[in-house]
C-alpha cells in the first residue's frame, strides 16, 4: 500500500504502480482502437411486467468484444473511458446504434414500449448531448417516446441546473427519464419535483434484501410507496428469484428486470424473444433456448 511504500522517504512510484500505469495505457489505446475497429456491441436486457408475460421495455447494455480478452463488461472499462475523455464517443455510438435497432423493431411490429439507454456522469455536462440524441432520432426516423434515458442521482446533483436544462429539453422531445440505481446515491429527494422524471429503477441491492416474512418495514417498501405517490413507474433491477418477483408484484411494482426473466442478450436472441411476445407465443418455450452471455 501507499503507506508502506512511503515509509522510507518519498519514493511514491513503485513497480506495482508502473504495471498498473502501463495497463491503463494499454486499455486506453485499446479503447481508441475499439472505437475505430467497431469492437463495441450492445446486449439488450428485457424488462417484464410483474406477471412475467409481457415485455414492457428493454435496456441497452454496452459490451466490448476485445480481440484477445473476450467479452468485457462496463465495469472493466467505463471508468477509464470517463477518465481519458473517450466516454462521449462511446455514448454517441450507443445512442446511434440502439436507436437504429429500436427503429428496426418498431418497423417489424415487435418493439417494446421503450428502449432504455444509460448515460454517464460526464454526458450530461456536454452541451451537444441534446442535439446528439435528437439528431439520432431524426436520422433513424424514430419518435422520442420510444426512448428512456437512465441517469443516476449523483449525476443530477452534481449540477442540478444543467441537469434540469438538458433533461427538460429532452422531455420536450417525448424522451423519458429514469433514475437508475435509485436509493444508492445522494439522498436529497428534492430533485424529484424539479425534473421530468418518469421511472424509478430500484437498485439491485434492495431487491436482494427482500425478506418475504417481514412486510412494510423495509427501505424498498418505502421506495415503492414513494414511487406510487409521485405517480412514477417503478422498475426493480436484479430480480433473481420467484420469491422476489412475487413480493414485488404484490406491491404493484410495474416492471422487473433480472436473471429470473432474462439475462442481457445479443441482438438476434432478444429479437426472437420480442417476436415471441408480439405473436403471443409462450415465452417459456423461447426463454430456455435463448443465448447466454
Ligand atoms: P445498470 O444500468 O444498473 O445495469 C444493470 C446491471 O445489472 C447490468 O450490468 C446487468 O447485466 C446487471 N443485471 C441485470 N439483471 C441482473 C440480475 O438479476 N442479477 C445481477 N447480479 N445482475 C443483473 P452490466 O451490463 O455489467 O452494466 C453495469 C453498469 O454499467 C450498468 O448498470 C450501467 O450503469 C453501466 N453501463 C452499461 N451500459 C452502459 C452504456 O452504454 N453507457 C454507460 N455510460 N454506462 C453503461
Ligand atoms: Mg441502467
Ligand atoms: Mg441500474
Ligand atoms: Mg445497477
Task: Give the gist of this structure.
Helices cover 46% and strands 19% of the residues. It has an 8-stranded mixed beta barrel, surrounded by 5 helices. It is built from 13 helices and 9 strands.
Can you walk me through this structure?
The protein is an alpha/beta fold. It has 13 helices and 9 strands. Strands 1-2-4-5-6-7-8-9 form an 8-stranded mixed β-barrel, surrounded by 5 helices. Helix 4 runs parallel beside helix 5 and helix 5 runs parallel beside helix 7. It is globular. It starts with a helix and ends in a 7-residue tail after the last helix. 35% of the residues are buried. The N terminus is likely disordered. Bound molecules: ligand C2E and magnesium ion (3 copies). One magnesium ion (MG) binds next to strand 6. This is cyclic-guanylate-specific phosphodiesterase.
Envelope shape: globular
Biggest sheet, spatial arrangement of strands: 1-2-4-5-6-7-8-9
Number of helical elements: 13
What's the alpha carbon Rg, rounded to whole Å? Answer: 21 Å
In terms of structural class, how would the helical and strand content be classed?
alpha/beta
GO biological process, one term: cellular response to nitric oxide
GO molecular function, one term: cyclic-guanylate-specific phosphodiesterase activity
Domain EAL: 24-278
Protein name: cyclic-guanylate-specific phosphodiesterase
Give the helix/strand layout:
Layout (H helix, E strand, L loop, with lengths): L1 H5 L8 H23 L2 E10 L5 E12 L3 E3 L1 H10 L3 H21 L6 E5 L10 H12 L6 E6 H6 L1 H12 L4 E7 L8 H4 L2 E6 L1 H5 L10 H11 L3 E4 L5 H9 L4 E2 L10 H12 L4 H4 L7
Helix pairs in contact: 4-5, 5-7
Amino acid at each position: 500500500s501507499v503507506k508502506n511504500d512511503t515509509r522510507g522517504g518519498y519514493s511514491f512510484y513503485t513497480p506495482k504502480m508502473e504495471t498498473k500505469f502501463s495497463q491503463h495505457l494499454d486499455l486506453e489505446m485499446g479503447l481508441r482502437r475499439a472505437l475505430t475497429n467497431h469492437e463495441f456491441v450492445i446486449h439488450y436486457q428485457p424488462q417484464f411486467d410483474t406477471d412475467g408475460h409481457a415485455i414492457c421495455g428493454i435496456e441497452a447494455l454496452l459490451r466490448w468484444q476485445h480481440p484477445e480478452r473476450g467479452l468485457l463488461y462496463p465495469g472493466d472499462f467505463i471508468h477509464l473511458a470517463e477518465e481519458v475523455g473517450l466516454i462521449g464517443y462511446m455514448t454517441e455510438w450507443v445512442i446511434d446504434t440502439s436507436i437504429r435497432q429500436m427503429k428496426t423493431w418498431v418497423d417489424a411490429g415487435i418493439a417494446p414500449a421503450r428502449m432504455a439507454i444509460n448515460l454517464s456522469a460526464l454526458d450530461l455536462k456536454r452541451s451537444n448531448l441534446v442535439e446528439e440524441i435528437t439528431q439520432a432520432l431524426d436520422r433513424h426516423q424514430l419518435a422520442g417516446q420510444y426512448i428512456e434515458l437512465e441517469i443516476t442521482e449523483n449525476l443530477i446533483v452534481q449540477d442540478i441546473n444543467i441537469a434540469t436544462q438538458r433533461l427538460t429539453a429532452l422531455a420536450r422531445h417525448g424522451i423519458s427519464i429514469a433514475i437508475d440505481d435509485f436509493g444508492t446515491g445522494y439522498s436529497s429527494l428534492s430533485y424529484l419535483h424539479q425534473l421530468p422524471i418518469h421511472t424509478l429503477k430500484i437498485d439491485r441491492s434492495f431487491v436482494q434484501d427482500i425478506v418475504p416474512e417481514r412486510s412494510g418495514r423495509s427501505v424498498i417498501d418505502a421506495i415503492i410507496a414513494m414511487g406510487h405517490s409521485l405517480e412514477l413507474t417503478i422498475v426493480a433491477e436484479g430480480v433473481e428469484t420467484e420469491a422476489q418477483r412475487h413480493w414485488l408484484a404484490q406491491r404493484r411494482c410495474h416492471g422487473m428486470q433480472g436473471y429470473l426473466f432474462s439475462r442481457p442478450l445479443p441482438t438476434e436472441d432478444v429479437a426472437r424473444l420480442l417476436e415471441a411476445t408480439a405473436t403471443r407465443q409462450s415465452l417459456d418455450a423461447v426463454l430456455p433456448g435463448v443465448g447466454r452471455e
